[in-house]
């Protein structure tokens, strides 16, 4: 076990910079009294001291790599300890961790050894053993290795719940500079292929219920923030395209963590966690709040305002669409009010069918009225609030929140 | 002051609702027999639990309301919330009078409160899905101890049954002194006598090794440059730590 412990230290440490952790959205059910169930909500089984969720056993098969990407800790020119798991070791760890309810499943990635196919074949082999020999129905997320053959990707899609190809650098120019052996075409080829195959299987399942699942939890990718000069418009436009055209389920953003000793990389003192957090908030607005990228950032405001969240920032820049009448406005407009989240917006629109919703009701429903008051009208709302100038509102909200500020960052209310 | 007393069971509670309607005497208080403190000048009714009457109330709630509403009521009962009985009575009355649609009028304090407690229950159920840690005993049993904030054990069996259908497992609530046991066929509630409780389960030899591997993994995926203890604590409050292998 000592040897496995050593390998685990090296290969978990090397995998942790991939921030994807989701284990949700699959449709895989337990069958024939096998082990595991991946339908329904994902579960975060633990949280590390950095506050990130631990849902899957996230490891590399090996950190040996023929590439030399400057942002990556496993790049071949980096002088670090190398290790490799055997297929059986990964299978045993997954099953035994799963049976103890430590994890939802496996997230397996790898450095590229020999070539893409050779690497992909081994990842597929592990997923296949888990599914077919161990009747494992838990969650499996595999990396799709750029350059791997179509046959291998198809096979991977049958065993995995999710596949991901990481774009990493938000423009091809930066990618070529920082990761000279990579290019966008090689990244988009497997992504396109998986999307088309998934569509084909989905169509097939409409007529034949028993048709096999293919990547039921879809694809995701990761963008590194702060390692290259792209601004927030570029990053969010790229994400928007990935959601709409590539039908990705998630785009993850990873604030660049300075890995010393490579002159191609910027020398940051701390990872840009605040910027990363604001980008996540903007991503939320795109996916759940019916905002467009243009609403959030544009040529006039190419970067997010890091002092306030993007929803408040939008509201302050667009006072002409406010105040919103709580009892009459469309759901979409209510969603745009700072301090009102998706669930509260739904509560408002169902409740107002029974009669007028008052300011006191809003407070009790959990709406952050300290923010919302400047952007709404309803019986009982403080009238003076909506006439204030944007800069004054900004100041009032910031100072009110500074008073109860705790230094951590959260997603919206 | 009109007071009703029941035995603390869900069926007993529903029977109480039946009695209130039968007697046409609205309650000022509903208590369980063992928490009840006698009060001066009161009109007291001791309800004896009737499965038949409980069933009729439940059926009424399901017809006038919905199955979902009945589930919400059960969840509030499991919350052990101190004012739960009177809240539920007002809620049930509202549903029986106005029908299921009223459930979406969050201007009503009872509707909002029932929703709020349900949210807390769901969070606790989700936490138990996440924080249960099994240890394998020499009898091939995967054994876990938990202390949830609310009495959610009855709500988590199905999840573990689906997931671990090929292993024997037991989840024991050491505060409420009962557990769920699954024998690869079905899940049942079990209560342990003192004798069984004193017997420490014996774990298989590889158990220690897997625990060490898990602890090591947990440490290795942490990014020290991003340390954020506040966030860590918010997601994993300290009261759960003693049952979490990686935090013990």
How would you summarize this macromolecular structure in one to three sentences?
Chain A folds into two domains: 2-296, TIM Barrel; 310-403, no CATH class. In chain A, 40% of the residues lie in helices and 9% in strands.
Describe this structure in words.
The complex is a heterodimer of chains A (413) and B (248). Chain A is of the alpha/beta class and 413 residues long. Chain A folds into two domains: 2-296, Aldolase class I (TIM Barrel, Alpha-Beta Barrel), CATH 3.20.20.70; 310-403, no CATH class. Chain A contains 15 helices and ten strands. In chain A, the strands form three sheets. In chain A, strands 3-4-5-6-7-8 form a six-stranded parallel β-sheet. In chain A, helix 2 crosses helix 3 (116-133) and helix 3 (116-133) packs parallel to helix 4. The longest helix of chain A is centred in the middle third of the chain and has 24 residues, at 184-207. The model of chain A has no long low-confidence stretch (mean pLDDT 92). Chain B is 47% helix and 15% strand. In chain B, helix 4 (84-98) packs across helix 5. Chain B has three domains: 2-123, no CATH class; 132-204, no CATH class; 206-248, no CATH class. At the A-B interface, helix 1, strand 1, strand 2, helix 2 and helix 12 of A face helix 5, strand 4, helix 8 and helix 9 of B.
